[in-house]
């Protein structure tokens, strides 16, 4: 199947000499959710802006639905919806008129039934006649999403869509995202809430200093880079950790009641069985054992540390 977005050797260098993107290539399949992660200034927004036709690239090509974003920009742009980081709305315009106007900008004919369905799905229908200046920050961000979806795009970019939004609104927004994905909409999101990416995304991309470090299916990334932490609760606290155990990578909590051990889930032998046997031989009574998988945030930070080392 042909990807709905095909990025080939994309670069962006500004006149100041700053390289925002350096030879980025990426294919995004129709209907998938791709989370693009990176620190501030990594190049995420630059890449999105280029695909959406807001920034001119220095090199490379981008096709959306088979349409080159520079040679056939009208056709490409009609397939795209963008929810930007910044909230920029006409303060005196009514919510419903704001969404209608955006739909018209794309040349889409009036469709009041769809506008109502869209506003209801975002819990905006009761606010349809409110001026945008009267809305909370979270509601304003919902209006941005409604505007981005007003012309029924095939691709939706969400650039930090839940910044400044409370937990309830965040959950409701992600429910809408899942429904859009079920309808076949391709979604590319950037977020600083890494638990959202972990919950929502099919694939994870990590970008830093304008370079795409990796793009992998979420489960593969978690399995390949994730480690597990074993916590061993002791019946009797230890004053010190035996040197032999410390040499094997175990740590002891400040109160001496727990030992910690990190291990690679991909290893042929984790060493846990041998470790527990060693504890028994030393008459160290174990009360309980629990494990914790590395989070996406921990994996993300370790990748950045490796890249900057």
TrEMBL record:
GO terms for molecular function: ATP binding; ATP hydrolysis activity. This is ABC transporter ATP-binding protein. Gene3D superfamilies: P-loop containing nucleotide triphosphate hydrolases. Residues 5-234 form the ABC transporter domain. It comes from Paracoccus kondratievae. Keywords: ATP-binding, Nucleotide-binding, Transport. SUPFAM superfamilies: P-loop containing nucleoside triphosphate hydrolases. InterPro entries: AAA+_ATPase (IPR003593), ABC_transporter-like_ATP-bd (IPR003439), ABC_transporter-like_CS (IPR017871), ABC_transporter_ATP-binding (IPR050763), P-loop_NTPase (IPR027417). It holds the Pfam family ABC_tran.
């Amino acid at each position: 199947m042909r990807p709905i977005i095909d990025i080939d050797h994309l670069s962006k260098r500004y006149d100041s000499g700053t390289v925002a993107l350096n030879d980025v290539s990426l294919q995004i399949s129709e209907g998938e959710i791709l989370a693009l992660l990176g620190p501030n200034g990594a190049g995420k927004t630059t890449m999105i802006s280029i695909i959406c036709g807001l920034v001119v690239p220095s090199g490379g090509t981008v096709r959306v639905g088979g349409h080159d974003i520079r040679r056939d920009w009208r056709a490409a742009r009609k397939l795209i919806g963008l929810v930007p980081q910044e909230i920029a709305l006409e303060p005196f315009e009514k919510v419903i008129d704001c969404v209608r106007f955006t739909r018209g900008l794309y040349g889409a004919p009036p469709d009041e039934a769809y506008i109502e369905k869209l506003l209801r799905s975002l819990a905006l229908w009761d606010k349809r006649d409110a001026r945008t200046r009267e809305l909370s920050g979270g509601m304003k961000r919902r209006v941005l999403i409604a505007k981005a979806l007003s012309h029924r795009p095939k691709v939706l970019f969400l650039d930090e869509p839940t910044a400044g939004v409370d937990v309830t609104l965040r959950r409701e927004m992600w429910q809408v995202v899942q429904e859009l994905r079920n309808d076949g909409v391709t979604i590319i999101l950037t977020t600083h809430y890494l638990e959202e990416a972990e919950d929502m995304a099919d694939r994870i991309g990590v970008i830093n200093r304008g370079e795409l470090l990796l793009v992998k299916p979420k489960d593969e990334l978690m399995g390949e880079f994730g480690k597990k932490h074993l916590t061993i609760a002791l019946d009797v606290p230890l004053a010190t950790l035996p040197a032999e155990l410390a040499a094997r990578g175990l740590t002891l909590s400040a109160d001496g009641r727990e030992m910690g051990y990190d291990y690679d889930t991909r290893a042929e032998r984790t060493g846990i069985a041998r470790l527990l046997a060693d504890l028994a031989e030393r008459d160290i009574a174990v009360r309980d054992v629990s494990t914790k998988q590395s989070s996406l945030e921990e994996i993300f930070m370790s990748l950045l540390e490796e890249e900057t080392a």
